[in-house]
Amino acid sequence: MLGYLLHKVLRKYKSNLIVHCDSNMEKTIWNPLQIFDYRANHKYAVLILNSALQWNDDTLLQIWKKALVKVTVDGGTCRWVDYLEKQEIDVFDGHHEECIPHLISGDMDSCQSSVLDKFKDMGSIIIRTPNQDRTDYTKALVELKLYTKKKNIELSKIYVFVESSGRFDHIMGNVNTLFKSEDLIGEIQVIQVSSTSLTWILRPGLHSIIIPKVLVQNSSWCGLLPIGTPVNCIETTGLKWNLNNSSLQFGGLVSTSNTYDDCSEVTVNTDTPVIWTMGIKPLTENINNSEVSNSDS
């Protein structure tokens, strides 16, 4: 009798998962092209972490200039200065106020004190965050929230510039901060931006990801990664290899090296937080071409 009851409970639980996966709920919209559309009027902040800035043109500079809040994190401050020098900009010459960070935060073990002093004299707010139980990235989101609340600034997105290669522990620490981001900053979309990829977290629910035409044409890669916990039920459309009420977990199925099914929209319906990551190299290579526009999405 006990076995029969347990079987009924399990069947009901599985049924509820599938109903949740198939439910007609409001979509969360993600539009990667917005990051590179300098004419777009969306309210965002930029964070630059201590990672090599592998941007050879002025794309990052243009994104920075349009940001409502500009933050460099510890050694990311020197990375920003180095990038500006490659753009033939001396941020300390008094003629480039738009390049000065609003906030500089971190434990400051990777940033020269002379650089911090110069930025402080030019108006940057320096916030030392020595707590070693949190990463500088995590602490920067906390400080960003306090700053926007004090200044009465409303953000819709935060673009975090960090490369997705290098030390694996740093990569996983950054992913961990994505999982924490809702508790740290609220429901603002946090997107990690590298020179070749975008990565963010999809919370439980229905998501629509607008895919730029150039990425579809080049069969750019994408993936869904169940980091931290198995995904019990996930369903997608618009991918070459779609998931149909599937489960994802390490040691089982993981959706890597996927791509798009000649479609300008990918939908993901998930009952568990899952990482979405996508290649953008064809997009950044053609960002100044007229063919890369919102109408192509």
SSE blueprint and pairings:
Blueprint: H1 2-22, E1 27-30, E2 44-48, H2 59-66, E3 69-73, H3 76-86, E4 103-106, H4 113-121, E5 125-128, H5 136-151, E6 157-161, H6 168-185, E7 189-193, E8 197-202, E9 205-210, H7 213-217, E10 222-225, E11 231-237, E12 246-248, E13 255-258, E14 265-270, E15 274-279, H8 281-285
Parallel strand pairs: 1-9, 2-3, 2-6, 3-4, 4-5, 6-7
Antiparallel strand pairs: 7-8, 8-15, 9-14, 10-13, 10-15, 11-12, 11-14
Helix pairs in contact: 5-6
Compact overview of the structure:
The protein is α/β, with parallel strands linked by helices. It has helices at 2-22, 59-66, 76-86, 113-121, 136-151, 168-185, 213-217, 281-285; strands spanning 27-30, 44-48, 69-73, 103-106, 125-128, 157-161, 189-193, 197-202, 205-210, 222-225, 231-237, 246-248, 255-258, 265-270, 274-279.
Notes on the protein architecture:
The termini are far apart. It is built from eight helices and 15 strands. Helix 5 runs parallel beside helix 6. The longest helix has 21 residues. The chain is globular. Helices cover 31% and strands 25% of the residues. The protein is α/β, with parallel strands linked by helices and 297 residues long. The N terminus and C terminus are likely disordered. Strands 5-4-3-2-6-7-8-15-10-13 form a ten-stranded mixed sheet, with helices on both faces. Strands 1-9-14-11-12 form a five-stranded mixed sheet, covered by helices on one side.
